[in-house]
Known about the structure:
Elements: E1 2-7, H1 13-24, E2 28-32, E3 38-40, E4 47-49, E5 60-64, H2 70-82, E6 86-87, H3 91-98, H4 100-109, E7 117-118, H5 127-133, E8 138-142, E9 151-154, H6 157-169, E10 174-178, E11 186-193, E12 197-204, E13 219-222, H7 227-240, E14 244-252, E15 255-262, H8 268-274, H9 278-293
Parallel strand pairs: 1-2, 1-5, 5-6
Antiparallel strand pairs: 3-4, 7-10, 8-9, 8-10, 11-12, 11-14, 12-13, 14-15
Amino acid sequence: xxxxxxxxxxxxxxxxxxxxxxxxxxxxxxxxxxxxxxxxxxxxxxxxxxxxxxxxxxxxxxxxxxxxxxxxxxxxxxxxxxxxxxxxxxxxxxxxxxxxxxxxxxxxxxxxxxxxxxxxxxxxxxxxxxxxxxxxxxxxxxxxxxxxxxxxxxxxxxxxxxxxxxxxxxxxxxxxxxxxxxxxxxxxxxxxxxxxxxxxxxxxxxxxxxxxxxxxxxxxxxxxxxxxxxxxxxxxxxxxxxxxxxxxxxxxxxxxxxxxxxxxxxxxxxxxxxxxxxxxxxxxxxxxxxxxxx
Length: 294
């Protein structure tokens, strides 16, 4: 099969693993930077041309689009969809998952437990409302935060209001969330492929750190999910429309809470810890999309 991986960095571990698994299957694989694509939109012959003038043709497409290319990357995916090409992550699912507020709204609509969240009015930060709705410490989080950057643990209402006012003054979109004290510094990353949790790991932040991101020095170990956690993870991926997803889950006194559903989760941490061939499972799913059409 002809497979196109949409990635801005061919040298990334995740991209290299996916290339390797494609080649094991005997596939022809191209890695295309989505920002080099030109979209020709035509009633009868919509297509995509890369910056070398080549028309892109694929049996299926694997988006690995980072936050720096979300909107244009979604347009490229949509162009493949218009051509009837199978894609692992739909354009709409990418947009919904990448916008943390939209994702939380979709999760809440599906009755999936999430930390209590506030999006303040863009006109004015209402300090009285913040004090009424949240106990402190609480989390103040930029909506475009990645790898734990832009996630602040605010120890007091006064501090939380001040941070909120600063973000608003700088025209940054942000939310305030309940801080889950009993699970501080720990969360679970569960990897979903086509309606199945294929790997999961517990991430623990280093001493003195409340963010459990691997990029911030967190350690990780294999963990088995409970039946309730597995059901919650799968329901979360479905709610956002993702067939391949990294779902971040936190254990609270009231049960599992979903923190985030990631549309382009990294493979290095989950494969290194669990020894599961996650990349191979993703490629097998892409192949199944093509076979299902025959």
